[in-house]
Write a structure and sequence with these properties.
With about 375 residues, this protein is α+β, with helices and mostly antiparallel strands. It has one domain: B-lactam Antibiotic, Isopenicillin N Synthase, Chain (Jelly Rolls, Sandwich). The chain contains eleven helices and 16 strands. It has an eight-stranded mixed sheet with strand order 3-4-12-9-14-7-6-5. It has a four-stranded antiparallel sheet with strand order 8-13-10-11, with no helix packed on it. A hairpin with a 2-residue loop joins strand 10 and strand 11. The termini are far apart. The structure holds ligand L2PXNNRO, 2-oxoglutaric acid (AKG) and fe (ii) ion. Pfam families: 2OG-FeII_Oxy (PF03171), DIOX_N (PF14226). GO terms for molecular function: gibberellin 20-oxidase activity; metal ion binding. Pathway: Hormone biosynthesis; Plant hormone biosynthesis; gibberellin biosynthesis.
Length: about 375
């Protein structure tokens, strides 16, 4: 067992496989004091950060307040800018979003509250094998190489108040007790705000694709989304590792808020570009599931996060996802003889399961998923 791995007393749970009796976690406070980093965190040459600071990506800035005012010029400008961005690389910024600045501030502060806790306390909410929620530390018990230099805390958000109007608060109360009541309240409010913002963006995407403002808004009304807190400790060898490896988000839409450190990079025209932090703006990008919903018209884009040797970096990522059993299928207006179906129908829960149990999301997730899905369906057909 590598020295940086702390063997913790086994925490038997219902869904651990026989081989998962012991939880192992990455102890950033221990690692930071070593002069080198373990080989498991060293990425192949061709995937390492650029030696020079990459050029800045000029992404359009969407004034959401303007769009929501209904002013015809603002609506057409907004939808045109989003359309061009989504045809080019799938990233754009949203400003004048109406999200309370105090909520943003306390959401960032609450990350320090959690990630500053002793390892054993964070380990109380450890992500279980095959699950997408909980605390994960560089996924040491999930991947054996190209480990990301980060700790994450992921949790579910359900927008369907009939089903669960307080899922985030309950999740933390159940897992961490009364001390996390305020913590849960903060992220319940944050996720509600993110869900509302996502539905406005879905209106813009619907208009930009010619299917109208309601189509995708209604598709995501009762979303089963994922909120993820990314904490990237400083690294003594930032040029050898990555905070988050190159990937396309398998989800539908990502609304990201970076702190002021910087580190998000997007791969466009065969070159890595940086998207510098802007506290007033959310970075929005479409994911694989929305690429399938648009029948491939809009592209899910390759991106990653680099780390530095000086200071921790934090980002809050809200991953909009349809209801688990919702069938992902493009509207008929986006399918034609010239534009035949690019992907088969699938449910979001099947793709999510694929990324959690069978495949580490990267830049080819959707292709790998479609191949896997076809194989599964062929095997079932042969068995009947
Ligand atoms: C559905 C998801 C899987 C990941 C979290 C959400 C959306 C982004 C995915 C991820 C960040 C892509 C890079 C690899 C990954 C393993 C990670 O570094 O965290 C991915 C997440 C995951 O599988 O936990
Ligand atoms: O932290 C960042 O800037 C990006 C993280 C990311 O891409 C993700 O969590 O999917
Ligand atoms: Fe991402």
């Amino acid at each position: 067992m590598p020295s940086f791995i702390h063997q913790l007393p086994s925490t038997p749970t219902t869904n651990e496989t026989a081989g998962e009796q012991n939880s192992v976690v990455f102890d950033a406070s221990f690692l930071q004091n070593q002069c080198n980093i373990p080989y498991e965190f060293i990425w192949p040459d061709h995937e390492r950060p650029c030696p020079e600071h990459p050029p800045m990506l000029h992404v359009p800035c969407i004034d959401l307040n303007g769009f929501l005012s209904g002013d015809a010029f603002a609506v057409s400008t907004t939808t045109e800018l989003v359309k061009q961005a989504c045809l080019d690389h799938g990233f754009f910024l949203v400003i004048n979003h109406g999200i309370d600045s105090n909520l943003l501030k306390v959401a960032h502060k609450s990350m320090d509250f959690f990630f500053g806790k002793p390892l054993q306390e964070k380990q109380r909410i450890q992500r279980k094998v095959g699950d997408h929620c909980g605390y994960a530390s560089s996924f040491t018990n999930r991947f054996s190489s190209k480990l990301p230099w980060k700790e994450t805390l992921s949790f579910p958000y359900c927008a369907d108040v009939q089903r669960d109007s307080n899922i985030v608060e309950s999740y933390f109360l159940n897992a961490m007790g009364e001390d996390f009541s305020e913590f849960g309240k903060v992220y319940q409010k944050y996720c509600e705000a993110m869900s509302c913002l996502s539905l406005s963006v879905m209106e813009i995407l619907g208009i930009s694709l010619g299917v109208g403002p309601k189509h995708f808004r209604e598709f995501f009304e009762g979303n089963d989304s994922i909120m993820r807190l990314n904490y990237y400790p400083p690294c003594q060898k930032p040029d050898l590792t990555l905070g988050t490896g190159p990937h396309c988000d398998p989800t539908s839409l990502t609304i990201l808020h970076q702190d002021d450190v910087g580190g998000l990079e997007v791969y466009v025209n065969e070159t890595w570009h940086s998207i510098p932090p802007d506290p007033e703006a959310f970075v929005v990008n479409i994911g694989d599931t929305f690429m399938a919903l648009s029948n491939g018209v809009y592209k899910s884009c390759l991106h990653r996060a680099v780390v530095n040797s000086r200071t921790p970096r934090k980002s809050l990522a809200f991953f909009l996802c349809p209801k688990m059993d919702k069938v992902v299928s493009p509207p008929k207006e986006l399918v034609s003889y010239e534009n035949p179906r690019m992907f088969p129908d699938f449910t979001w829960s099947t793709l999510l399961d694929f990324t959690q149990k069978h495949y580490r999301a990267d830049m080819k997730t959707l292709d790998a998923f479609v191949k896997w899905l076809r194989h599964q369906r062929d095997s079932q057909d042969m068995a009947t």
